[in-house]
Amino acid sequence: MPIITNIEDLRVLHQKRTPKMFYDYADSGSWTETTYRANEADFQKIKFRQRVAVNMENRTTQTTMIGETVAMPVALAPTGLTGMQFADGEILAARAAEKFGVPFCLSTMSICSIEEVAKHTTKPFWFQLYVMKDRDFIERLIERARAASCSALVLTLDLQILGQRHKDLKNGLSAPPKLTIANIINMMTKPRWCLGMAKTPRRNFGNIVGHASGVGNMASLSSWTAEQFDPGLSWDDVEWIKNRWGGKLIIKGILDVEDARLAANSGADALIVSNHGGRQLDHAVSSIHALPAIVDAVGSDIEVWVDGGIRSGQDVLKAWALGARGTMIGRAFLYGLGAMGEAGVTKCLEIIHRELDLSMAFTGHRDIHKVTKAILYPGTY
After folding, report:
1. What is the pLDDT of residues 77-99, one digit of tens each?
2. Cβ contacts of 75 within 8 Å, gap of 6 or more
């Protein structure tokens, strides 16, 4: 086993151990992938002010996200097909998050269902909702999330239509995935992955197959998903969903100040500054670049979080310093999951927490709540 010290080590191991079509699904962006790369690159431009001869004892990164106590301001983002990166992936990631003390959010497009994740965890998790044309299905999804005691609903607004991801098209990554000769040959070179998938019955989209009208198996799923994402989604639908859910609501996919104001006015509890990991509108601004203006506009009215490009605890600290009161990691935990299963997700969280804790100390702080943009070097953000 290689010595793992950072998220990049997990990425390399993930790529080695997971079939190409599923690794590429996790680690790709739309079109030229310019926004995907900018999400990471723009974090690197931000520099810290190092402080010395300050008391660094008794440090804490503990805070809250929508009122829930968290070990650090990090949550596991909703990611589709997580159970294809590693067998039972959503269950394993949820368990790792629960043990570490950070929230886990389950995607509508997960392999393990809401009920299966609830069965294998003891702490309420969050559920992410895509808005489909079939409103009856959406109502039943919301009821299932409520029955599973999900503590928040994360409503994604930036996937009304799908951005084009070249790698997915070339790999035949669809719903269901196409088992081409090339894909089968590649899978045969990943015996660990194959053995895990052979042992689990969870290989369908658990929230959809057997629940959506006319979708009784994977064969009928493709046409359903192609037709169901709703390009007519509006803020009226947000209100409709909010009223039916009745609990904590988080709006994901905000990148513009005007949309941030609409999100704040909607009565949601938090918004996530996000460009869908660079997987939708290519050449959109990076999430961390968009963050400060949105915090300035609505940060006093609604909790503002950010995702996209976070690969270290230093990135988390930079986001906090710029006003985010929470962050979400997607690819980072998927790298860990694909590399080592539940232990890999735990390793990812340990790496990020240690980097966050030490970097906070080096900038002169012991309590994350005392951290402001004053820790950042002027002119780099």
Report:
1. 999 999 999 999 999 999 999 99
2. 65, 97, 102, 103, 104, 105, 126, 305, 326, 327, 328, 329
Using an 8 Å Cβ cutoff, are 218 and 204 in contact? yes
- What are the structural domains of the chain? 7-375 (3.20.20.70)
- For residues 158-182, average pLDDT: 85
**pTM passes above 0.85:** yes
Model pLDDT for residues 199-228, shown as the tens digit of each residue: 999 999 999 999 998 888 766 777 787 789
For 335-352, write each residue's pLDDT tens digit. 999 999 999 999 999 999
At position 216, the amino acid (one-letter code) is: G
Rounded average pLDDT over 345-372: 98
The two tokens of residue 211 are: 């629940």
Q: Compute the distance between CA of residue 153 and CA of residue 131 in angstroms, rounded to an integer.
A: 12
Q: What is the 3-state secondary structure (H, E, C) of 201-218?
A: CCCCCCCCCCCCCCCCCH
CA dihedral 111, 114, 119, 120 (to 10 degrees): 50
Report, as residue numbers or ranges, the catalytic residues: 276
